[in-house]
UniProtKB/TrEMBL annotation:
InterPro entries: EF-G-like_DII (IPR053905), EFG_III/V (IPR035647), G_TR_CS (IPR031157), P-loop_NTPase (IPR027417), PrfC (IPR004548), RF3_C (IPR032090), RF3_dom_3_sf (IPR038467), RF3_GTP-bd (IPR041732). CDD domains: RF3 (cd04169), RF3_III (cd16259). Its main location: cytoplasm. The gene is prfC. Keywords: Cytoplasm, GTP-binding, Nucleotide-binding, Protein biosynthesis. It comes from Pseudooceanicola algae. The keyword Membrane does not apply. PANTHER family: PEPTIDE CHAIN RELEASE FACTOR RF3. GTP binds at residues 25-32, 93-97, 147-150. Belongs to the TRAFAC class translation factor GTPase superfamily. Classic translation factor GTPase family. PrfC subfamily. The keyword Metal-binding does not apply. One of its GO terms (cellular component) is cytosol. This is Peptide chain release factor 3. GO terms for molecular function: GTP binding; GTPase activity; guanosine tetraphosphate binding; translation release factor activity, codon nonspecific; translation release factor activity, codon specific.
């Protein structure tokens, strides 16, 4: 049977109920607060405050986390699964700071939709805009939550106009705010003709919902002061005339975003947003791969690694590979093929991330995110299948834009430093090159703050104080070509040669002139700014 909305085969119920998404926002817009309320309504935590409390307990353990706190950035991303009504939500956390864009971009390859949170007073901010552009590259469906309506906010039409103009996407109001700041009463639910009233006394109480028959219903007079009601009627009428109507197909194609207004801290508007994600959000989508695409309903399991995190638990030196299942029904203990090395892997202790605790995953379906502890075999971009040689495509790798050399302040620790750096390279936290001549390492990152994060992590997780220093090199290129041609280049340019964590050869440059020279003198080799993640 074909699904009306998507014109695709109807998915097995377990897959069809899954909604895998990320939240994109500018720091401070309310992502953490909203996440917490999601988990609260999803029954994953009992009390608001737990997410933050856990976060802080973790943070006090280290200065690195202190830095995270001071700068208001979240460095470690994770995945959280919880049920809401008939749905299973998988929320993949995106690191918020712009310096972590590489990680964030990859995270967005693992989701089917994004919730965009904006601050009602600030509108579309820089980081939101950047993340939105990434979502746009994949035409990800976007649902918008305009937060902090309990504070003095901008005019509703202004906010909607700004989104339409700055992000070039149609906006349809799913709810309409009644008043703002101190006078904020709640919202008129434009999709279901309901009145949602906010309870200011109890922040964790879900809004009172009153069923009404359109905007002329007399019930409205009982709950809304006359002047506010007149304004609401006028605005909603205007909105219905001027703004596009809700259209699920347009949402799924990424050309229209429904917007809900609310206040995460007051638990207001959150349930309506969750209902929206469930009812209108996309089911697990087809995954692009080579040599063929992977459909979620395929009975065989396939999945791909979009993130690797080392040292999640300081007591265990394990790494967790975050795998997005692209198809099938996974059962614990399954043997999957690691396509890159063609080796079988028994997945005996996969974890699901329920709230902030890990739990053994007995089973998982297409759309789910599972964590696979491993000792470094699994890398970002790797595909796991039941045997077929499929390779998931579209996971970006970025050219390192800043290079520095790094040394252990205690030379006796150089060997340990190498191990630590290799691990971070595998996590995708940095590019690490070992120069062919001399000692030490060259580290390449996308944003300057990453050097500081790395220095803190190396010291905290490995006990090695390090120093980053300017390098004579400014950029790196991977060298590809027939062995003979590559060897010739390497032999005559040793002072420019380095090796990445896979042992692949890079040409380290100081000036564009270096690259031009190689292109001219070695027509049989090619230099590339990024290496395919595979
Ligand atoms: P994040 O940086 O996006 O994760 O934002 P947080 O969730 O940490 O929120 C940033 C600040 O805004 C915190 O002080 C929150 O308490 C506050 N905040 C979040 N939601 C609301 C809201 O609905 N109303 C008001 N007034 N403050 C909020």
């Amino acid at each position: 049977m074909l699904d009306n909305a998507t014109n695709r085969p109807e998915l097995p119920a377990e897959i069809a109920r899954r909604r895998t998404f990320a939240i994109i926002s500018h720091p401070d817009a309310g992502k953490t607060t909203l996440t917490e309320k999601f988990l609260l309504y999803g029954g994953a935590i009992q009390m608001a405050g737990q997410v933050r409390a856990k976060g802080e307990a973790r943070r006090t353990r280290s200065d690195f986390m202190q830095m995270e706190k001071d700068r208001g950035i979240s460095v470690s991303a994770s995945a959280m699964s919880f049920d809401f009504k008939t749905f299973r939500f998988n929320l993949v956390d995106t690191p918020g700071h712009s310096d972590f864009s590489e990680d964030t971009y990859r995270t967005l390859t693992a989701v089917d939709a994004a919730v965009m949170v904006i601050d009602g007073a600030k509108g579309v901010e820089s980081q939101t805009q950047k993340l939105f552009e990434v979502c746009r590259l994949r035409d990800l469906p976007i649902l918008t939550f305009c937060n902090k309506m309990d504070r003095e906010s901008r005019d509703t039409f202004d906010i909607i106009d700004e989104i339409q103009e700055n992000l070039a996407i149609d906006v349809t109001p799913a709810s309409w705010p009644i008043g703002m700041g101190r006078d904020f009463l709640g919202c008129y639910d434009m999709l279901n003709d309901r009145l949602e009233l906010m309870d200011r006394a109890d922040r964790n109480k879900v809004a009172e919902s009153i069923e009404i028959k359109g905007l002329d219903d007399e019930l409205l007079d009982q709950h809304i002061p006359a002047d506010q009601l007149a304004k609401l009627r006028e605005e909603v009428e205007m909105a219905r005339e001027l703004l596009p109507a809700f259209d699920r197909q347009a949402l799924l194609e990424g050309t229209l975003t429904p917007i809900w207004f609310g206040s995460a801290i007051n638990s207001f508007g959150v349930k309506e947003l969750m209902d929206g994600i469930g009812s209108f959000g996309p089911e697990p989508q087809i995954q692009s791969a080579e040599p063929r695409k992977i459909a979620p309903e395929e009975t065989k399991v396939a999945g791909f690694v979009f993130k690797v995190q080392a040292n999640m638990d300081p007591k265990h030196r394990d790494r967790v590979a975050f795998v997005r299942l692209a198809s099938g029904h996974f059962l614990r203990g399954m043997k999957l093929t690691h396509v890159r090395t063609k080796k079988p892997m028994a997945i005996s202790n996969p974890v699901l991330f329920l709230a902030s605790d890990r739990e053994l995953a007995e089973e998982a379906w297409a759309g789910d995110i599972i964590g696979i502890p491993n000792h470094g075999q699994l890398r970002i971009g790797d595909t796991l299948t039941e045997g077929e040689a499929l390779r998931v495509s579209g996971i970006p790798s970025f050219a390192p834009e800043l290079l520095q050399s790094v040394r252990a302040t205690d030379p006796m620790k150089a060997k340990h430093l190498e191990k630590a750096l290799m691990q971070f390279a595998e996590e995708g936290a940095a590019k690490v090159f070992k120069p062919a001549i001399g000692s030490g390492f060259i580290v390449g990152v996308v944003g300057a703050l990453q050097f500081e994060v790395l220095a803190s992590r190396i010291e905290l997780e490995y006990g090695i104080p390090v120093r980053f220093e300017g390098s004579q090199f400014t950029s790196a290129r991977w060298v590809n070509g027939a062995k003979q041609a590559v060897d010739k280049l390497v032999d005559s340019n040793r002072q420019h040669i380095g090796y990445d964590h896979d042992g692949d050869i890079v040409f380290l440059t100081r000036l564009q002139w270096d690259i031009d020279r190689i292109v001219r003198d070695y027509p049989d080799v090619t230099l590339t700014a990024t290496k395919e993640m595979m």
